[in-house]
Amino acid sequence: MPAIRHHKITVEGLGVFVREAGDPAKPSIVLLPGYPSSTRAYVRLIDRLAHDWHAVAIDYPGFGSSDPLPESPTFDRLAEITGTTIDALGIGDYAVYMFDFGSPVGFRIALEHDQRVRGLVVQNGNAYVEGFGPGVAALSAWWGDREAGQAAVDGFVSLEGTQTQWQAGARDPELIDPEQALADQLVLDRPGRADYMKALLWDYQNNPPRYPDWQAWLR
């Protein structure tokens, strides 16, 4: 089994953490994680892919072991840094695995890199408002009335909220490693990081207006 290599590269003054496995001469696949997780969530998947792929998983700024942005985070900036990281790693054409937050990051990158993105795997990610499930209701209420919805969003960054992110919709929660949520929460509990994540959740409302562009690219 090819070993996973762990390293940081510097992009715009930020340390960006990367997990990488497999032969770089093979086709590349870039894995983009969801909220609030790091690429630690992909370790078992990377192990399975690395025989046939050059698998690269990137922690967004402020996620996992990557440095946070010095300013209030946006999906535009997460995509810019992540896209530049892909370039810095010397990756040419590649496929993208997008989960959850990976979609608004990944579609922005796809439009920028265009023909370099040769395939998509999309899991629980949106490019159409019809894809919104009940989990978005609390965010929508918060976007409409920030004060009234604040308590629910504060709960998102608590341990209970993080555990829910991992377990929601699972047929058998006992198959989910509980230490994944604990690892994510250690990041959220760092000074200023919960507010950082809430700022990103606030920015999420700027994604649906971009959907027509992403749909046009898909067509």
Q: Explain this structure to me?
A:
This protein has helices at residues 43-49, 75-88, 102-113, 137-144, 146-156, 159-167, 178-188, 193-203, 211-218; strands spanning 5-11, 14-21, 28-32, 54-58, 94-99, 117-123. By secondary structure, the protein is of the alpha/beta class. The chain starts with a strand and ends with a helix. The mean pLDDT is 96. Strand 3 (28-32), helix 1 (43-49) and strand 4 form a beta-alpha-beta unit. It is built from nine helices and six strands, in the order E-E-E-H-E-H-E-H-E-H-H-H-H-H-H. Helix 2 crosses helix 3, helix 4 packs antiparallel against helix 5 (146-156) and helix 6 crosses helix 7 (178-188). Strands 1-2-4-3-5-6 form a six-stranded mixed sheet, sandwiched between helices.
Question: Could you give a quick summary of the protein structure above?
Answer:
By secondary structure, the chain is α/β, with parallel strands linked by helices.
- Strand proportion, as a percent range, falls in 15-25%
Q: What percent of the residues sit in helical stretches (DSSP H or I)?
A: 40-55%
* Spatial strand order of the main sheet: 1-2-4-3-5-6
End-to-end Cα distance, whole Å, is: 37 Å
Radius of gyration: 17 Å
Q: What global shape is seen?
A: globular
Q: Number of DSSP strands?
A: 6
Written as H for each helix and E for each strand, in order along the chain, the element string is EEEHEHEHEHHHHHH
What is the residue-averaged pLDDT? 96
Short key terms for the protein model shown above:
six-stranded mixed β-sheet, globular, single chain, alpha/beta, 9 helices, 42% helix, 17% strand, 219 residues
